[in-house]
Specification:
Elements lengths: L1 E6 L4 E8 L3 E9 L1 H5 L6 H23 L8 E7 L3 H18 L3 E5 H12 L7 E6 L4 E6 L5 E6 L5 H11 L6 H9 L24 H17 L5 H27 L3 E5 L6 H14 L2 E3 L3 H4 L4 H12 L22
Helix pairs in contact: 2-3, 4-11, 5-6, 5-7, 6-8, 8-9
């Protein structure tokens, strides 16, 4: 089954063709990093306009690269939630038009389900049930994947996402957008004991997380030093911040693995590229005798291949849509609108 998949939830326009949920025939991406870098973050209106400019050409490029024709496409999939509403709408409207023109089924895919499914592309042997740590720019959660389309949220951030905090701290330090990658690179030469950083423990659910206090602590440290004219140990601050984020995530994942008994752990989302988190996850899993699935960096960020992978299983479960499909800025991975 060849699925034409579309992703436009933030600042990457992507169109891919995926076969049977496991094989990427092509994944075409138009990055907007250069356009948004001068603003220090994503400007929603600019993102939407760039999606409109790029999406039709990417679809033609995907077909050209694979040698397939429009008749070879069996279904059209699209990210319908969550994301920047204007950006998501561009992808949804394109996918609806494509599905109608081709006379093929339309498959709506939740963006975070797509991130989890990126692991199916990297690791064909991975099958549910397993535990997944999702760490992206807008979401941080521990998910129990009971089946391809049946999931349970064990814990989530109660405020900011880890990725958002990385980018914000990086921006205040004067690092180029996206700040998370630059911050991780700077941390390689710093001491994670250079600055004290909090490890919040919010709420009654032991799996829930909080990052707003950590972000505030890092920003206050930066502003205080600047007000006093003190030099900031940037590598040390970055290393201390990375360690605090990892210490918030990894122990909760380890606890979830122990209590659920899962022996497979997948990691998903752009922050999964962070070297400190990857190192600590691997060490914790080794201690527990758990198999870890860390997708390659190319599948950590937003892409359409992951949407096509999850779409295959959504289709098998009967989760298709008609022309009434709408876009949502916020929506639970379980389906409820927030």
């Amino acid at each position: 089954m060849n699925i034409l998949a579309v992703e436009s939830s933030c600042d990457e326009t992507a169109v891919a063709i995926v076969r049977d949920g496991r094989e990427v025939l092509t994944d075409c991406i138009a990055s907007q990093v250069a356009e948004h870098r001068i603003y220090g973050g994503v400007v929603p209106e600019i993102a939407s306009r760039k999606h409109v400019e790029a999406i039709y050409g990417l679809a033609d490029e995907a077909l050209l690269k694979t040698g397939l024709t429009r008749d070879d496409i069996d279904a059209v999939a699209v990210t319908y939630a969550p994301g920047l509403i204007g950006a998501v709408l561009v992808g949804v409207n394109f996918a609806k038009a494509a599905a109608m023109a081709l006379g093929k089924p339309l498959i709506p895919v939740h963006h975070i389900r797509g991130h989890i499914a990126a692991n199916y592309l990297a690791f064909p042997e991975l099958k549910p049930p397993f535990l997944c740590l999702v760490v992206s720019g807008g979401h941080t959660m521990i998910v129990e994947v009971e089946d391809y389309t049946k999931m349970r949220i064990l814990g989530t951030t109660l405020d900011d996402a880890a990725g958002e905090c990385f980018d914000k701290v990086g921006r205040v330090l004067g690092m180029p957008y996206p700040g998370g990658a630059a911050l991780d690179k700077a941390a390689q030469t710093g001491s994670d004991k250079a600055y004290p950083m909090p490890r919040p423990k919010p709420g009654e659910n032991p799996y829930d997380m909080s990052f707003s206090g950590l972000k505030t602590a890092a920003l206050n440290t930066i502003h205080h030093a600047r007000q006093l004219g003190e030099e900031i140990d940037i590598p040390g601050l970055c290393a201390s911040f990375c360690a605090a984020v990892s210490d918030t995530l990894v122990p909760r994942v380890a606890m979830a693995l122990k209590e659920t008994g899962h022996k497979q752990l997948a990691v998903a989302g752009g922050v999964a590229a962070n070297s400190v988190i990857r190192r600590d996850i691997l060490a914790a899993a080794e201690n527990l005798g758990v198999k870890v699935y860390l997708p390659p960096l190319s599948l950590c960020g937003d892409n359409a291949a992951m949407i096509g992978a999850q779409a295959y299983y959504e289709y098998l479960a009967g989760n298709t849509a008609g022309m009434e499909l709408n876009a949502y800025a916020t929506k639970s991975i379980l389906g409820e609108t927030l």
